[in-house]
Amino acid sequence: MDNHQLKYYYPPRIDPMPSLFAGFEQQICRDSTKNEHIDGLLNALAYVRTKNEAAEPNDTRADFVMYRGMLTRIFVTPFSLRDAWSMNIARVGATIYVEDNVTDEMIADRSGSSEQHRRLMYSGYKFETLCMVDEPPETLSREQLDEQLAKQAREVVNTHSEYCTVFRTQLGPHSIISGAEVDCIDRAKPHEFPNRSYRELKTSRCLDSEKARNSFERFKLLKFWAQSFIAGIPVVTVGFRDDEGRLKEVQDIRTQDMPRMVRGKPRMWEANVCMNFANQVLQFIKDNVTDGGPDTQYRIEYSPEEAQ
Question: Pairing with 101, which of 5, 10, 72, 145 sits 20 to 30 Å away (CA)?
Answer without folding.
Answer: 5
